[in-house]
Design brief:
By secondary structure, this protein is an all-alpha fold. The chain has 3 helices and no strands. It is elongated. The relative contact order is 0.15.
């Protein structure tokens, strides 16, 4: 597996964890730990994780317009 392929796998995993967290009703320590470790891996690979965060304000405003 090349470095670029590995980076994409870690990005996909991080995004999936963010999706899970978005719908959690309570704090999940294991999920928080997994997010933290994946984020650190991405930073070590030179990936800016700020680009992967959900914009909840936009999602809420879109649902209110319907």
């Amino acid at each position: 597996m090349s470095f670029e392929e590995l980076k994409q796998v870690v990005i996909d995993n991080y995004i999936n964890l963010i999706r899970i967290k978005r719908y959690q009703k309570e704090v999940n320590p294991e999920l928080e730990y997994q997010l933290k470790t994946q984020k650190n891996k991405l930073h070590q690979m030179g990936v800016n994780t700020d680009d992967f965060l959900y914009e909840d304000n936009n999602n809420n405003s879109n649902s209110n317009n319907n």
